[in-house]
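A student in our group prepared the protein record below, which I am reviewing. Thanks in advance; the entry in question is below.
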Amino acid sequence: MTVLGITSFAHDSAAALVRDGRVIALAEEERFNRERRTGRFPHEAIRFCLKTAGLGPGDLHAVGFFLRPDLVRGRIAAIARDFFPRALLDLPVRIGEQLAFHVGLEAGLRRARLPRRRLVFVEHHLCHAASAFYPSPWERAAILTVDGKGEWAATTLGIGEGGAARILEEVRYPHSLGYLYAAITGFIGFRPWSAEGSTMALASFGDPTRYRAAFARLLRRREDGGYAVCLDRLDFAIGQPRHRPAIEALLGPARRPDEPLEQRHHDVAAALQEAVEEAVLALLRRLHALTGADAVCLAGGVCLNAAMNGRIVAESPFASHLFQPLASDQGTALGAALEVDAAAARAAGRPVPRVPIEGLHLGPGHDDARCRAAADRAIAAGAPIRVAPVAADGGPGGRDGAVARAAAAAIAAGGAIGWVQGRLEAGPRALGARSIVADPRDRAMHERLNVSVKRRELFRPFAPAVLAEAADDWFRMPGARTGRPLRDMIVCVPVRAERAGQIPAVVHVDGSARVQVVDEAAVPRYRALLAAFGELTGVPIVINTSFNGRGEPIVATPEDAIDCFLRIGLDALFLGDVVVTRARS
């Protein structure tokens, strides 16, 4: 059975194609239309998925959609009633959004030539749950999903067994950990739904004790493991993660984006981070008691919080954990397709197909010839660059080895490089296909990348990528407590104390790092790059961060890469088997 999954009209619009439980292709629309976290209908992502499989729209057995509109309409009516009269001011906006949604969906399906009769609406948090459970290695596992909100649910506790993912309990919006994190992100002066990573990074420099009591009032924990948000000080009922003026009695004045950060803001972030971590750990204890399962699958945007995930691996009652790296809404496109596929198998009395996802390099790829042609066209159009093929050096690994050794030498000499190889990775993290790569041994590289390349706050950390066979020698890896290798930069682990001084550019202030383990599932040239850098320096680790400009999606095509290279402070671009540098006048 072949199923297309779609996420649209919210954020992280995406499409995923699944055939008998196997993921054939997945891509976010932002990579094509260059609009970060776009909510537009994913026309280009759908076109890519179908082309990859050699199919037309009429070849699909079903199309799964990541949301149930009927439940959304029910929530809007209930919120207007329960928060009368304040929510009435917001009601015309919500009604307008619903009209736009239905018009946009019909127009999108028509333009994509997708058969309306084959469209299946799937509950949002069930999509999150399906995206994590069906590709997992377990026949039975608990499931926790945590995000801003779906139709009603903001958190769900569930179970996967018998070839089905089921929701057992839920916490309903507006009691949302995702909205709480976004609202305090706005209070600190960052952009909600965009800069939560800045809040998480800022938290590591703060002291949570200063505002611990305040957050105990903002996020009230229940004895059964549940929670409730204080809506007297946090205003979520009208659809946006806002704080009310009354919150300033607890936390002090809100910061404007143009004001300097003070220690108070660090401490607020630290208390928020601690409060959310403790709430999620309590939910996991509740889920473990409810299911008795040994393993747990986690998804939803809150589960992108790598610092929290490190605590979960260390402290939760479950023996094994799987964090869906496509935890935000791009993963619900995958989950919608997998759930529709599984439901059809159950209805037909067939075994539900369960196929693990080995790697996230599921998007478009561009071979060496395409990369060379793009560079040549850029020069012909007047781009101030020089292009040179990587020379064969007679070493092992053929062309892949030569490219890797040339890149390793450039990094070891102090360069920061763009790296574009193979198929585009899915999700919010670059994993060695569209990356910026640099030397972790140089402490000053951390500041250089933040200031002149990423153009963001100095306190933001960078992630290390390490060869799988060397990971335990450099980091305290959690071993069997994770359901798959830590390939996806989604869990923080402790750096071994005796090694931290050798890689200062990737060690967080608390001695941890958001590690990426590079094994055979990685892009071959990327793995060869780490091996070559290790041979050259004795350190089989590089800095890996996403290849994009500030506020932009990760680059997708060779043309995107050249354009971005010209605008940010990189020394070279390894584009397929050519090296792009700046022309000197």
User: Anything to note?
Assistant: The radius of gyration is 23 Å. The first helix runs from residue 30 to 33. The mean pLDDT is 95.
